[in-house]
Design goal:
This is Flagellar motor switch protein FliM. One of its GO terms (molecular function) is cytoskeletal motor activity. Pfam families: FliM (PF02154), FliMN_C (PF01052). One of its GO terms (biological process) is bacterial-type flagellum-dependent swarming motility. This protein has 333 residues and is an alpha+beta fold. Helices cover 35% and strands 25% of the residues. It contains 11 helices and 10 strands. The strands form 2 sheets. It has a 6-stranded antiparallel beta sheet. The chain has a 4-stranded antiparallel beta sheet with strand order 7-8-9-10, with no helix packed on it.
């Protein structure tokens, strides 16, 4: 980034040059000297800042979907948010996670290769305890998973990939599926140790239990779609209009939606004492005369005026007048 000097700094610099305290030729030499920056080949930079920002946006949506999913499944307070998105060698990721953890290895067609969703044991066992009827508390000592616990874990986390699919839909349509569930990182080698990965860290809180969910995405897996992670692609995709087929499908689904319709005979106000004293045969006077039409409300909005009647021994209402068909609501600015 280019430093912008204030007016006071410019005046001080000109004063120093005019007084001889600074030499203009020496300043030119400093600018022409080559600036050397160290570069570590084991930590190759494969993701630009633009890519990191796009991955952050995608997985912020993923975190919101996960929060909704786990809250419904576990029926307790769940909060998930993106803490950090960084790039590092795969070997460094393996060394940073616990020796005993939950590793969900999955593929996402049409992308080629495998990815990993690592769930900290505190979080995973809190979910397991909650699913089995507990309070959602992680045990003090983490043991190996039994066969029943493994099956429950696979069912819990296999459905999280539906949320991942929804979060990535703006970039590419993927079909993630769980390939295997491991507990020892040493037995999991999805890419070479020096391969650069994108590590998305999600802070997870379930009740009083906190931990991390880490999503490991190797660069080689998403390299074919890297151009779509640019800001330009995001703007272009947002401007796309719906295809006629999508609009027609949307219309068909909306036309099948069910809405409550209420025929209101009238209204009346009585005291609590009068309400408690009501008995069979009592008459409550309404605020409408008999000859006035009934108010037909769709949801809570008045749409029609009708007349009471019957059809085949069933109560019915005949629509006599349309009140506000096609009229949009006016909102005060």
């Amino acid at each position: 980034m280019v430093d912008v000097l204030s007016q006071n700094e410019i005046d001080a610099l000109l004063a120093a040059l005019s007084s001889g305290e600074m030499d203009a030729e020496e300043l030119k030499k400093e600018d022409t000297q080559k600036k050397i920056r160290s570069y570590e080949f084991k930590r190759a930079v494969r993701f630009s800042k633009d890519h990191i920002r796009s991955l952050t946006r995608i997985h912020e949506n993923f975190a919101r979907y996960l929060t909704t999913y786990f809250s419904a499944q576990l029926r307790t307070f769940v909060q998930i948010s993106v803490v950090q998105v960084e790039q590092l060698p795969y070997d460094e990721f393996i060394r940073s996670i616990p020796k005993m953890t939950i590793l969900n290895i999955f593929e996402a067609e049409p992308l080629e290769g495998r990815m990993v969703m690592e769930v900290h044991p505190n979080v995973a066992y809190a979910m397991l305890d909650r699913m089995l009827g507990g309070q959602g508390v992680a045990p003090s000592k983490i043991n190996a998973l039994t066969e029943i616990e493994t099956i429950i874990m696979e069912r819990i986390f296999s459905r999280t990939f539906e949320s991942l699919q929804e979060a990535w839909k703006t970039i590419v349509d993927i079909s993630p599926r769980l390939e295997a569930l491991e507990t020892n990182p040493q037995f999991m080698q999805i890419v070479s140790p020096n391969e650069t990965i994108a590590l998305i860290s999600l802070s997870t809180k379930i009740g009083d239990t906190t931990g991390m969910i880490n999503l490991c995405i190797p660069h080689v897996v998403i390299e074919p779609i890297m151009p779509r992670l640019s800001v330009h692609h995001w703007f272009v995709s947002q401007k796309k209009t719906r295809a006629p087929e999508e609009v027609e499908v949307l219309k068909q689904r909306v036309s099948k939606a069910k809405l409550p319709i209420v025929a209101e005979l009238g209204q009346s106000s009585i005291s609590i004492r009068e309400f408690l004293g009501l008995a069979v045969g009592d008459v409550i006077a309404l605020n409408k005369p008999i000859g006035q039409g009934l108010d037909l409300k769709v949801g809570d909005k008045l749409k029609f005026i009708g007349s009471p009647g019957s059809v085949k021994d069933r109560l019915a209402v005949q629509i006599d007048e349309v009140v506000s068909e096609g009229v949009e609501d006016d909102y005060d600015e």
